Amino acid sequence: MTDKTILRALKGETLPVPPIWMMRQAGRYLPEYRATRAQAGDFLSLCYNPELAAEVTLQPIRRYGFDAAILFADILLVPQALGADLWFVTGEGPRLSTVTAQGDFDTLKPASAVHETLAPVYETLRILSRALPAETTLIGFAGAPWTVATYMIAGRGTPDQAPAHALKAENRALFEALLERLTEATIEYLSAQVEAGAECVKLFDSWAGSLNGADFDAYALAPAKRIIAELKARHPGLPVIAFPREAGEKYVGFARATGADCVALDNSVAADWAAQHVQVDGCVQGNLASSHMVTGGQALVDETRAIVEAFRNGPHIFNLGHGITPDADPENVQLMIDTVRAMAPAT
Ligand code: CP3
């Protein structure tokens, strides 16, 4: 039994008002985040400092009272825990040592070794489980194998994931060995997050949309299915949110095929369409365009209401379609929350 609204929605309950949280809710659009990050030094030092990582996780909960807190960390900590070099270039993004040949792969550690590097993340979760308000759900997360592999193969973020597609074409055995290692590491990592207090986990497959046809099934769907099955075997009843971003029509049936309790929708799919074709399988999360957090105004209010209306007859967690951007106005976040919460039906 739980009173936590996010957990109720994930179990399939239709609530009068959807619970709400926001991807990247702890981030640079908040002055208090920028202050704590300056105190920590760089972004990775913040991720590995349990007290400060817990502090930035709590900041948006204090300011807005979101229904969920998401662990503050990054999907690229897993490659680092496997032995890749990782650093962030200000204004540009992540850089990693690359995996493009068998010799690179051979230097990676086994999946069971990730805990050594990731132990501070588990400590962040333990601090958060004690510090969060009773009604707030604690969400853990990891990147999905394909998305994380795209960064490891290219050594950076890429607009079209071309280096990963090239390795898949040229050396499929190596590509599949890398995905396999990441699948095992993700199971280890998420399972440890649950043991440390995460009540739900989310799998971010940010680049799922660039996998087509059989590749989507083999490299987005199948790893998600395996990760979810193993996590649920180890932690019966654990709710899982899958985010195959920009999957388009492949969102249909994704929850059923992978065993996910909820699929997170990006804002390229229409809410009315998703209510009909995706929400029939259970809870959905999303999907306001994050640009509204920059522009605000009546368009934000109208679009927020339309999304709540579209998903009103089934389980729904309100969220953005992707992470909030650093140029967002914190007042627009409040306007979104007020708009959602004002939509409780009159009784
Ligand atoms: O949602 C949350 O607040 C939880 C924490 C979280 C972060 N990154 C913090 C972060 C989560 C869930 C992520 C996921 C993540 N990280 C993804 C998948 C989701 C997505 O956005 O598509 C990806 C691809 C990454 C990799 C990553 N991390 C990139 C490409 C960047 C640089 C781009 C940028 O925004 O600067 C990051 C950095 C990052 N991760 C920041 C935050 C708050 C900004 C770091 C800073 O303070 O400078």
From TrEMBL:
Listed GO CC annotations: cytosol
Reactions that this protein is recorded to catalyse: uroporphyrinogen III + 4 H(+) = coproporphyrinogen III + 4 CO2
Cited InterPro entries: UROD/MetE-like_sf (IPR038071), Uroporphyrinogen_deCO2ase_HemE (IPR006361), Uroporphyrinogen_deCOase (IPR000257)
GO biological process: protoporphyrinogen IX biosynthetic process from glutamate
Keywords: Cytoplasm, Decarboxylase, Lyase, Porphyrin biosynthesis
Record-linked PANTHER family: METHYLTETRAHYDROFOLATE:HOMOCYSTEINE METHYLTRANSFERASE RELATED, UROPORPHYRINOGEN DECARBOXYLASE
UniProt function note: Catalyzes the decarboxylation of four acetate groups of uroporphyrinogen-III to yield coproporphyrinogen-III.
Record protein name field: Uroporphyrinogen decarboxylase
